[in-house]
Amino acid sequence: MRRLIWLLLVVVAVSLAACAQATPAPTEAPKPTEAPKPTEAPKPTEAPKPTEAPAFEPLVVTDESCESSKVKEIKALDEYTVQFTLCKPDPAFLAKIAFQPFFIRPREWIEANANEANKETLLTQPVGTGPYKIEKWFRGDKIVFKRFEDYWGEPAKTETLVFRWAKEGAQRLLELQAGTADYITKVSPDDFETVKNDPNLVLLPVRNPNIFYIAFINTVKPFDDVRVRRAIAMGIDRERIVKNYYPEGSEVADFFTPCVIENGCVGEPWYSFDPEAANKLLDEVGLTKNDEGVRFETKIYYRDVFRVYLPEPSKVAVEIQNQLMENLGIKAEVIVMESGEFIAKSTAGELDGLYLLGWGADYLHVTNFLDFHFSKNNPQYGEPYPEIYEPLEKAATIADPEEARPYYEEANNAIRELVPMIPVAHGAAADAARADVKNAKAAVLGPPELWTFEPEGRDTLVYLKAAEPISLYCADETDGESLDACKMVTEGLYQYTADGEMVPRLAEKCEITENSTVVTCTLRKGVKFHDGSTLDANDVVRSFDALLNEASPYHVGNTGAFEYPSYFFGLMNKQE
């Protein structure tokens, strides 16, 4: 029995052991998988900081010597302030820089194009801030301008402006009558009545101050004797010339400078026509008449170019020739010269006789007439006259017109006494327009404000001049045709209105301080150039550097003469 029990226990034990081997030990419940830590959202990439505009680095141009220039320094004080420091006071400074050669171009455009490699762009594709931008110059035919849509002021009335040219006044009038032109310049005096009597046209008087004169070279005999010059001054009937050859509104000149300009007509007026007194002077000199009634022979030089101051050059030359012989017994040969040669030789004092020349105002100040023509550096009358240029030098530094008046009176009286030339006429002139062109008006100085004109039913304005522009880089041009075109595209710190009023343009204002030798100009903000750049003070400095600073690498132009900058201010850092 016990044995049986023992066997049963063994069997149970073996079975339990087998079960233990067959049934694996229970696996520990896996630890719950830890939820992955949430991936941190990447830090947002910081937006790149906007590239800061480079700090404004003001330009400066200097000429400490003041030997050849009236300007000592041109400096950008900050982005919108430019300062001019003068060598001595110049009361006409703002009036001078209101003239087209001193208008502003972008610094970058000047630096890219004022060189021999890109000279064609410099001369033909100007970039400015004006109401029109140039589209294309078709050489020998026309220049097409388009309205500048980002213009800072009132936009141009027409989308397209076309400059064309025709030499003859009759041709210009025919085009105006036919409607192929909307505005023409320099109506021939004989056509004034035709325009007035045509209901489709309107005559527009031009009030540009000017002077026509007969000049002498005082190093050429017998004009080296002041009595001979004075005799001719009294022996020419100037009133007859004006009456017969000038349009209505012209005046006999009693002074070199027109009286509309302050201090122009102070002093003693010119000699009256007095052939008897004139002949007595010639007798006194010993210039007696020969058997043919001739005292001496000379020449009369002129150029056959229509100008407001001399609208009938060939007829006036013959009139003077006849008067010299009839009134004084002086036999003169009339010689017409090519325009460029005539200007070069007359202004250099190289003509051996009388010559017929004139001048139209560039800016409205007496210095524009007297200082150029009678300065000690001008050889056009032969040896300069200190009795004239010394009081002018004093007057030119005085801002107060009343304080300057005695010096201009002294200079005018010296001109009358010494007779370097004979003032003859202040010529009147007129432009004309189609009657349906709204706002058409001639300007006192330079071209009319064409961007304000509005032809009825047309979005193109055609402006017809007497000649084609030479170039459109007016820092180095003097012809009116070039200057007219430049005024459509470029603007100055100051400019003249059509009525001759000088007003700020790209400058909000200019202040003159420190004994009238420092001029500080604050610029308008937000003014755009045609290339999209924005006007700042460095554009002004570089523009003046290019035209006034002879040492600048950007002093490059059409001829390189830079006549107006040189005449108005002298050139900085003059090169030998």
Number of strands: 22
Structural class: alpha+beta
* N- and C-termini, Cα separation: 148 Å
Radius of gyration equals 39 Å
Approximately how much beta-strand content do the residues carry? Answer: 15-25%
Major beta-sheet overview:
7 strands, mixed
What report would you give on this structure?
By secondary structure, the chain is an alpha+beta fold. The protein contains 17 helices and 22 strands. It has a seven-stranded mixed sheet with strand order 4-5-6-18-7-15-8, sandwiched between helices. The protein has a six-stranded mixed sheet with strand order 10-14-9-13-11-12. A five-stranded antiparallel sheet has the order 1-2-3-22-21, with helices on one face. It starts with a helix and ends in a 7-residue tail after the last helix. 44% of the residues are buried. The model is unreliable at 1-33 and 35-42 (pLDDT under 50).
Keywords:
576 residues; alpha+beta; seven-stranded mixed beta sheet; six-stranded mixed beta sheet; globular
Which helices and strands appear, and what pairs or packs with what?
Blueprint: H1 2-22, E1 60-62, E2 71-78, E3 81-86, H2 93-97, H3 107-113, H4 119-124, E4 132-138, E5 142-147, E6 160-165, H5 169-178, E7 183-184, H6 192-196, E8 201-206, E9 210-215, H7 226-235, H8 238-245, E10 251-252, H9 275-285, E11 296-303, H10 313-328, E12 330-337, H11 339-347, E13 354-360, H12 367-374, H13 386-395, H14 401-418, E14 421-426, E15 429-434, E16 437-438, E17 454-455, E18 460-465, H15 480-489, E19 494-496, E20 502-504, E21 507-513, E22 518-523, H16 537-548, H17 563-569
Parallel strand pairs: 6-18, 7-18, 11-12, 11-13
Antiparallel strand pairs: 1-2, 2-3, 3-22, 4-5, 5-6, 7-15, 8-15, 9-13, 9-14, 10-14, 16-17, 19-20, 21-22
Helix pairs in contact: 3-16, 7-9, 12-13, 13-14
